[in-house]
Amino acid sequence: MATNPMEQFEVHKIGPEIEISGINLSFTNSSLFMVISAVLILILLLFGTREKKLIPGKIQLISEMLYNFISKMISDTAGKKAKPFFPFIFSLFVFILFCNMVGMLPYSFTVTSHIIVTLTFALFIFIGVTILGFVMHGFKYLKIFVPSGVPIVLLPIISIIEIISYLSRPISLSVRLFANMMAGHTMLKVFGGFVISLGLIGGWLPLSFSVALTGLEILVAFLQAYVFAILTCIYLNDALNLHH
Amino acid sequence: MKKLFALIIFLLFLEKNLYSAEAGMPQLDPEYWPSQVFWLIIIFLTIYILISKIFIPKIKGSIDLREDKIRKDLEDAKTFKEQAELKLNEYNSLMETAKIDVKKIISKSRQKLNEDMQIKKDEAQKKIDAEILNAETEIKKFKKDSFNKIKSISEDITSNLVKDIFGEDLNKSSVEASVQQTIKEYQKGK
Predict the structure, then answer these.
(1) For a FRET experiment, which of B66, B82, B159, B177 has its CA 20 to 30 Å from that of B98?
(2) CB A27 to CB B14 under 8 A?
(3) Domain definitions of chain A by residue range
(4) Which of B33, B67, B68 is the mutation pick for testing A, counting most A CBs within 10 A?
(5) Contact A90, A67 (CB under 8 A)
(6) HSE-up of A54 (CA within 13 Å, CB side)?
(7) Min CA distance, A138 vs chain B (Å)?
(8) What is the pLDDT of residues A46-86, one digit of tens each?
(9) B56 to A194: CB separation less than 8 angstroms, yes or no
(10) Host H or E run for residue A20
């Protein structure tokens, strides 16, 4: 019996219905997996920082590598000025990575495969970066839409393109992550369905695809978390160091 | 690759009932959007605060600790190395002076030895020369004596022979003269 490959993305409430001023804020399976990811992150970091060993143990090494990885990523893309935002980028990267990875477990729910989740992040980053840009540079921040070294004739067109590309940042950022996660999980489900429907004789081919796709999806899960974090760094860089 | 795609499309046809069910994306159903945003904000805020207030300072602390330790160790190693080099220089200079001293001592003792040897040699030479002189005079004397002895023996023998053969005594001077003559002839003939 084949099931709908989109069924895995359905959200249903767990426990009692919570309603505050007419808005449904019930605890759902999505919230549950957010909590699971958060708890896993906290466990990892708790064990990673439990003792400050000179020669780190495995978990301490993982947390330190994570720290160095993100620290390097920020200093490479956004420079020294972005240091106050390190905890945010760190949390963002780790949270998205863990949500993606937890989503790779069978029968689990992928939090980041929901546009509303990724859009929340993306809008927060977009609004935050825009406010930061205006705070740092005042009205000059609008220079970001006027690239230097462009012929005056082309300037209006270029500026319009720049404005559109700037405004589409939250959409591209959120849709990239959401679509990647959704497509990957849908594909895995479809191939899984083939394994069942083709049975013992023909099911081996889609099974091998499933195995290969699982590997690919783990790569994508890491890559998308990385891309999300590094794009955030690049947007931060635009706001902090006005280059245009 | 084409075959693969054909296979997938074929399989999709087999799975028609896959999409016969309610198609569409649950993601676009706004029923639980506020709930998701609400819980996301709460949970993300929680881990953000925990990470930024507790875990990042801890990780940074342990990394800094290690870097400090490494830096300190390197500095220690540097100072130790410098000290070792200082000691080595000291040792080298000590060795240098010691070598010079040794050379001095060796040359002094050699000179002294040479002088001693010279003195002893000279003494020995003198002794040897005196001995040689003594021996030579003795040899000369001996030679002379032997010649005279031979001469007197020959004279005796001659006078005896003459006496035995001719039965008469020759006077001594004529015998001496004839022996002298014979010796001279002999020495000439030689």
Answers:
(1) B82
(2) no
(3) 7-240
(4) B33
(5) yes
(6) 5
(7) 28
(8) 988 887 777 888 888 898 899 999 999 999 988 888 888 99
(9) no
(10) strand A19-20
